[in-house]
């Protein structure tokens, strides 16, 4: 069953539809009838009022001409026979001022009289109809001369009360008709719902007991009987298909049993073979991991040895300078104790001290710079965490750790990179890539070459960092190029090559950094290695050619 809105039963929907149609039809029909009846009665009352106003104006001609307001009052009082009349007044027109003056009037008890201006009386020649009253005036004239106005006001209370009485009758009719329609609807829905309930009960029994031998009985309603017959035919087909399915399942079970026996035998043999293979792979992975770690430690050891050699010079100069200063200070102290200190000797000591401290400062700064660069590179190589760093400064630090290797040769490394390019990536992997590539060029590419050039170009496009590494060394043949990224492949076994340098580069680019690399090389044409590395987060855009700076490191 669905989990949406709850379903609605047929009987409830049938009752609701019939009741809605019945009540809405009656309400609309009776409402329209009452509206037009009310409008007709009000129009008839208005026409009667207009006729009465005309008669009142005709009778007032003589009383105004003879100036008999008392007679006019009696005539107006005679209109009290009309129960709906509230007020009747006669106004005389002054011949000289053309002002309307009150002449005579009648107002029913309990009703407040009205007072009007000339303009208001003249405007009431067109009847004014409100919710409770109708007001009208009629001109009083004699031989074409305007004598005044006759004013009448009637109440609509009787008409409104009749409207409410009719409304109560309409509501009573609607209620009675709704009850009658409800009774008929209940009888009708029983006729349809009973066969449907029979079918529903049958479906529930089939679903609950999985008994497909049940059949629907003959139903009184023709359409539902057709539905029951269709359901019986469906049950017959389902029953036949289940029998065939049971037979097929029995055959499949027998076949599966025989297959399981064969699979069990072959699985046991396969497990033994897999176990032996897994053990071999574990040993191979362990050996490969040990070789990779050994290679990393070997390069790190070479780096440490080179840094230690580089530190010997500044530290040696510092020790020599401090020893000289200590001896000069001892001599100065002896001269001071024996009163032999002269101005000239003091000036010599101060000059020597200034020069010695300058030498100490420069060499200590040089030693600190070497240690700091080595520390950054060593920490990055031991960590696989992402870090945000400036690319140009980072490459300088990596190359600084290789200076002992470069110092023995005349090779040049040229870095083309924006000074402000900052990225977020894994610096340890990038530093290992650069170190392996440079050492590979020094050992293989520049073999028997006294002076070579290495170019490292770094650019960024959107979220990708592109590193192009080039050297003008000996290059590779197509046979060597095809195997250069294979583990343990080397062309310098006689000189102790492990064959893991370029394999480590490929693993770091593709597996650790998730990038791609392309190698282009020809014999005696050097190599060009292009690496495209995706970046998770960047802080600067791709630098333009005009913004790039070139740095040359000479050994």
UniProtKB/TrEMBL annotation:
Instruction: Give residue ranges for domain HAMP.
Output: 190-243
Q: Where is the Histidine kinase domain?
A: 306-537
Question: Does the keyword Zinc feature in the UniProt annotation?
Answer: no
E.C. number(s) listed in UniProt? 2.7.13.3
Q: Where in the cell is it found?
A: Membrane
Catalysed reactions, semicolon-separated: ATP + protein L-histidine = ADP + protein N-phospho-L-histidine
Protein name in UniProt:
histidine kinase
Say which species the protein is native to: Corallincola spongiicola
């Amino acid at each position: 069953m669905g989990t949406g809105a709850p379903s609605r039963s047929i009987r409830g929907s049938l009752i609701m539809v019939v009741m809605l149609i019945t009540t809405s039809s009656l309400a609309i029909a009776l409402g329209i009838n009452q509206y037009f009846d009310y409008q007709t009665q009000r129009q008839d009352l208005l026409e009667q009022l207009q006729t009465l106003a005309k008669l009142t104006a005709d009778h007032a001609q003589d009383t105004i001409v003879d100036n008999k307001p008392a007679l006019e009052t009696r005539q107006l009082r005679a209109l009290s026979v009309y129960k709906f009349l509230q007020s009747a007044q006669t106004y005389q027109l002054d011949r000289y001022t053309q002002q309307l003056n009150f002449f005579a009037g009648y107002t029913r008890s309990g009703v407040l009289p009205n007072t009007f201006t000339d303009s208001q009386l003249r405007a009431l020649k067109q009847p004014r109809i409100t919710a409770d009253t109708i007001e009208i005036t009629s001109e009083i004239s004699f031989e074409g001369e305007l004598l005044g106005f006759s004013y009448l006001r009637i109440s609509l209370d009787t008409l409104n009360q009749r409207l409410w009485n009719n409304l109560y009758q309409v509501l009573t009719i609607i209620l009675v008709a709704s009850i009658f329609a409800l009774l008929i609807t209940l009888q009708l829905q029983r006729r349809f719902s009973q066969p449907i309930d029979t079918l529903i009960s049958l479906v529930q029994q089939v679903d609950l007991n999985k008994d497909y031998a049940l059949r629907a009985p003959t139903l009184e309603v023709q359409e539902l009987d057709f539905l029951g017959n269709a359901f019986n035919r469906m049950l017959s087909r389902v029953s036949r298909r289940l029998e065939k399915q049971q037979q097929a399942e029995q055959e499949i079970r027998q076949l599966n049993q025989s297959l399981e026996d064969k699979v069990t035998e072959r699985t046991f043999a396969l497990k033994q073979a897999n176990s032996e293979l897994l053990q071999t792979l574990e040993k191979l992975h362990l050996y490969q991991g040990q070789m990779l770690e050994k290679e990393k430690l070997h390069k790190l050891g070479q780096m440490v040895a080179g840094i230690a050699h580089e530190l010997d010079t500044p530290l040696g100069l510092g020790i020599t300078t401090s020893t000289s200063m200590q001896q000069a200070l001892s001599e100065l102290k002896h001269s001071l104790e024996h009163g032999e200190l002269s101005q000239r000797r003091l000036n010599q000591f101060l000059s020597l001290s200034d020069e010695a401290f300058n030498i100490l400062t420069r060499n200590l700064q040089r030693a600190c710079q070497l240690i700091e660069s080595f520390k950054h590179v060593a920490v990055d190589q031991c960590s696989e965490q992402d870090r945000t760093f400036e690319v140009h400064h980072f490459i300088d630090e990596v190359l600084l750790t290789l200076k002992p290797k470069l110092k023995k040769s005349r090779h040049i490394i040229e870095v083309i990179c924006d000074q402000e390019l900052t990225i977020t990536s894994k610096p340890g992997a990038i530093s290992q890539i650069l170190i392996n590539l440079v050492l590979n060029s020094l050992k293989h590419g520049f073999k028997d070459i006294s002076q070579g050039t290495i170019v490292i170009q770094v650019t960024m496009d959107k979220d990708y960092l592109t590193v192009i590494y080039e050297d003008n060394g000996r290059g590779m043949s197509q046979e060597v190029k095809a195997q250069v990224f294979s583990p343990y492949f080397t062309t310098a076994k006689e000189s102790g090559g492990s064959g893991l340098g370029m394999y480590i580069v490929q693993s770091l680019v593709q597996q650790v950094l998730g990038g791609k690399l392309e190698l282009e090389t020809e014999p005696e044409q050097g190599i060009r290695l292009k690496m495209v590395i995706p970046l998770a987060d960047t802080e600067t855009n791709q630098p333009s050619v005009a913004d790039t700076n070139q740095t040359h490191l000479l050994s």
